């Protein structure tokens, strides 16, 4: 039992180290050997031993993040799906809250957002397949609730706007601290006000009347 616990502790340490390195350096600049070394393990092949290969590490990092975000996402969307057509604001809040909460908790939340930003910017086939495997069902659920909230918006237009929304959500949340150093100075409000500003922005883009 003690050895199993030690192994799980080592695995978790390697996983958090990988998350930090990917967040700082991107996906391509981090080797399994570098992860093992930075985690402080004696075995230079420890990451390979616990996760098999690079994709195994990436998949496990995604799992670490979704273990935190998915309960909130599930609770919100089950409520939307079981009720009458939701307001656009309700859908936007349900989509955004799990990610925006990562700016506050857990301790590695901001790194998780930067990691996700790198991940979504990578268009290599293996990463696209990885993202589809983990998030396609979620995106389909989001689309369905947006369609209920905006029944007059064509699906093709809705999907393009949803794609823009997800890019802005992930990259915006990852870089939120840049608001403290802009050409206008420090314009970052408190977290609650910032959250509502962000919801205003996303809701406005999704719900704007088509111009053609």
Automatic annotation (TrEMBL):
<dbReference type="Pfam" id="PF17939">
    <property type="entry name" value="TetR_C_30"/>
</dbReference>
<keyword id="KW-0238">DNA-binding</keyword>
<feature type="domain" description="HTH tetR-type">
    <location>
        <begin position="14"/>
        <end position="60"/>
    </location>
</feature>
<keyword id="KW-0804">Transcription</keyword>
<protein>
    <recommendedName>
        <fullName>TetR family transcriptional regulator</fullName>
    </recommendedName>
</protein>
<feature type="domain" description="PsrA tetracyclin repressor-like C-terminal">
    <location>
        <begin position="93"/>
        <end position="205"/>
    </location>
</feature>
<dbReference type="GO" id="GO:0003700">
    <property type="term" value="F:DNA-binding transcription factor activity"/>
</dbReference>
<dbReference type="InterPro" id="IPR050109">
    <property type="entry name" value="HTH-type_TetR-like_transc_reg"/>
</dbReference>
<dbReference type="InterPro" id="IPR041586">
    <property type="entry name" value="PsrA_TetR_C"/>
</dbReference>
<dbReference type="Pfam" id="PF00440">
    <property type="entry name" value="TetR_N"/>
</dbReference>
<dbReference type="InterPro" id="IPR001647">
    <property type="entry name" value="HTH_TetR"/>
</dbReference>
<dbReference type="InterPro" id="IPR009057">
    <property type="entry name" value="Homeodomain-like_sf"/>
</dbReference>
<keyword id="KW-0805">Transcription regulation</keyword>
<dbReference type="GO" id="GO:0000976">
    <property type="term" value="F:transcription cis-regulatory region binding"/>
</dbReference>
<dbReference type="InterPro" id="IPR036271">
    <property type="entry name" value="Tet_transcr_reg_TetR-rel_C_sf"/>
</dbReference>
């Amino acid at each position: 039992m003690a050895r199993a616990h030690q192994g799980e502790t080592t695995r978790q340490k390697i996983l958090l180290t990988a998350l930090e390195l990917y967040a700082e350096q991107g996906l391509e600049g981090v080797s399994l050997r570098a992860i093992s070394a930075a985690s402080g393990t004696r075995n230079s092949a420890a990451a390979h031993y616990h996760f098999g290969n690079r994709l195994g590490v990436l998949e496990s990092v995604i799992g670490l993040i979704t273990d935190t975000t998915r309960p909130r996402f599930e609770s919100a969307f089950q409520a939307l799906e079981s009720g009458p057509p939701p307001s656009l604001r309700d859908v936007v809040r349900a989509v955004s809250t799990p990610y925006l909460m990562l700016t506050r908790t857990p301790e590695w939340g901001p790194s998780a957002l930067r990691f996700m930003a790198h991940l979504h910017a990578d268009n290599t086939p293996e990463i696209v397949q990885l993202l589809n495997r983990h998030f396609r069902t979620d995106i389909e659920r989001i689309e369905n609730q947006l369609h209920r909230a905006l029944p007059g918006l064509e699906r093709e237009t809705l999907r393009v706007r949803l794609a823009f929304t997800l890019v802005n959500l992930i990259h915006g949340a990852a870089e939120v601290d840049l608001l403290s150093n802009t050409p206008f100075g420090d314009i970052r409000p408190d977290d609650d006000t910032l959250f509502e500003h962000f919801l205003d922005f996303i809701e406005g883009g999704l719900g704007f009347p088509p111009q053609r």
